[in-house]
Amino acid sequence: MKDESKKAGQRPSGKGGLRRPDAKKGKSAGKKKDSEKDLLQRIRELEFLNRLGQEFSSSLNLPEILAAVLEEVRQMKGAVACSIWLTAPKTGELFCTQATGVSSEAVLGWRLKPKEGIAGWVVHSGQSLIVKDTRADKRHFKEVDRETGTEIRCILGVPLRIRKKV
């Protein structure tokens, strides 16, 4: 028979009966919250990829697809603007082939010399780049800011690869 002297809700007396706040519970709750946040982010990313797949399969019009992809990225990241820069095969110049968001009309068709600006650096290096403050980064081509009237503060550059070429 079990100890009947213990009533519901009462703690046993003595050293073994004292309880301390469980620090592990606080940590596990924090880990659970982080896991939920990670899971929600992953779900958003998968939904994004699903929408991209639908966009690619619904149209053969590359500019239309690129515009839809950029707008999805812009909204997902909360960015003010997004653009895609391609390299002219003969000259190596970069040109903005698609843009969305603030001042997109002014940026569309813009040309940069090879290696010029952050886009040029990304193409030349083949590496992604996050610039948190363009004012402190000499690679930033500030003429775009002046021309559009929009000061760009942070930039995420990702090289697009086709058959291992940027």
In percent terms, what proportion of residues is strand?
Answer: 5-15%
How far apart are the first and last residues' alpha carbons, in Å? 76 Å
Helix content estimate: 40-55%
- The number of helices is 5
Mean pLDDT: 81
**SS-based class:** alpha+beta
Spatial order of the strands forming the largest sheet:
1-2-3
Q: Tell me the overall shape.
A: globular
Major sheet details? 3 strands, antiparallel
Overview of the molecule:
This protein has 166 residues and is an alpha+beta fold. Helices cover 43% and strands 14% of the residues. The chain contains five helices and five strands, in the order ααββαβαβαβ. The protein is globular.
Key traits:
two-stranded antiparallel sheet; 5 helices; 5 strands; 166 residues
Outline of the structure:
Helix content is 43%, strand content 14%. The chain has helices at residues 23-58, 62-77, 104-107, 117-125, 143-148; strands spanning 81-87, 94-101, 111-112, 129-131, 155-157.
Give the SSE layout.
Elements: H1 23-58, H2 62-77, E1 81-87, E2 94-101, H3 104-107, E3 111-112, H4 117-125, E4 129-131, H5 143-148, E5 155-157
Antiparallel strand pairs: 1-2, 2-3, 4-5
Helix pairs in contact: 1-2
